[in-house]
């Protein structure tokens, strides 16, 4: 999967991209992240990339000229892949959105800074806008890294375990079941017996029930859209009844 990132702060990316899993994905040719400094396309003497807003008010706005020049020279005039602006005004990034975007072989990511970008960039250059949540950061660089990280781990071969991404929290619409590793007892706290039983069917059933219970306790909103079997619904009904007992 190929990423072209347009930013005023390319220097903030390498430390994270060179960390273990992403670095390995890159060296195995599974992902490629190209960083483009928008300032390189600013043609005036001071390499200006922002300006005061028309109509007054505080803050600065990222200019059209360098951004159009940067993006068009790298992706061409009519790219057949998404050009995504990272902005708190975008659609909220979820695992579903990650799975949708992971089907693309290439993405362009535009990181906004300051008060935002000139509206003509949204209208005539970008094809999608994504927010990583309802809070405002100083720029789109961390959101771009988050998006790259979430998509990279969905690229086949990036995670050591081929099923690694399948059980993830959110992949099935539920939160993930709890994990344990050695030792079987730590400070008197024991690993649930079923996980030591070697009975794969029982383990799978326990994990599903735990995932349902966790989701019910922590994120009941997710149950409305999760894909649930008849058995799942019966278990939820049981949990619901138990929670009502005095
Ligand atoms: N830029 C600033 N805040 C953001 C957010 N929450 N999501 C995406 N881009 C942003």
Characteristics of this structure?
alpha/beta; Trp Operon Repressor, Chain A; Alpha/beta knot; binds adenine; 2 domains; five-stranded parallel beta sheet; two-stranded antiparallel sheet
Describe it for me?
- This protein is α/β, with parallel strands linked by helices and 246 residues long.
- The protein folds into two domains: 2-152, Alpha/beta knot (3-Layer(aba) Sandwich); 169-244, Orthogonal Bundle (Trp Operon Repressor, Chain A), CATH 1.10.1270.20.
- The chain is 35% helix and 16% strand.
- The protein is built from nine helices and nine strands.
- The chain has helices at residues 14-17, 20-27, 64-75, 95-101, 119-124, 141-152, 193-196, 200-218, 230-244; strands spanning 2-7, 32-37, 50-51, 61-62, 83-92, 106-111, 128-131, 185-186, 189-190.
- The strands form three sheets. Strands 2-1-6-5-7 form a five-stranded parallel β-sheet. A two-stranded antiparallel ribbon has the order 3-4. A two-stranded antiparallel sheet has the order 8-9.
- Strand 8 and strand 9 form a beta hairpin.
- The longest helix has 19 residues, at 200-218.
- It is elongated.
- The protein binds adenine.
- Adenine binds next to strand 5.
């Amino acid at each position: 999967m190929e990423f072209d990132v347009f930013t005023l702060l390319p220097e903030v990316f390498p430390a994270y991209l060179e960390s273990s899993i992403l670095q390995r994905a890159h060296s195995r040719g599974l992902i490629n992240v190209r960083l483009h400094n928008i300032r390189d396309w600013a043609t005036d003497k001071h390499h200006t990339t922002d300006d005061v807003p028309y109509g007054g008010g505080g803050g600065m706005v990222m200019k059209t000229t360098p951004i159009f020049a940067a993006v068009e020279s790298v992706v061409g005039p009519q790219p057949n892949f998404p050009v995504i602006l990272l902005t708190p005004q975008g659609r909220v990034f979820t695992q579903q959105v990650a799975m949708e975007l992971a089907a693309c072989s290439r993405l362009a990511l535009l990181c906004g800074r300051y008060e935002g970008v000139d509206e003509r960039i949204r209208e005539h250059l970008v094809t999608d806008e994504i927010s990583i949540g309802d809070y405002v950061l100083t720029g789109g660089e961390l959101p771009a890294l988050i998006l790259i990280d979430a998509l990279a781990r969905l690229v086949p071969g990036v995670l050591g375990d081929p099923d690694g991404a399948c059980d993830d929290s959110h992949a099935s619409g539920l939160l993930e079941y709890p994990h344990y590793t050695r030792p079987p007892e730590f400070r008197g706290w024991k690993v649930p017996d079923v996980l030591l039983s070697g009975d794969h069917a029982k383990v799978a059933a326990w994990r599903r029930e735990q995932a349902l219970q966790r989701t019910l306790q922590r994120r009941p909103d997710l149950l409305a859209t999760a894909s649930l079997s008849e058995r799942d619904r019966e278990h939820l009904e049981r949990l619901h009844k138990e929670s009502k007992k005095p």
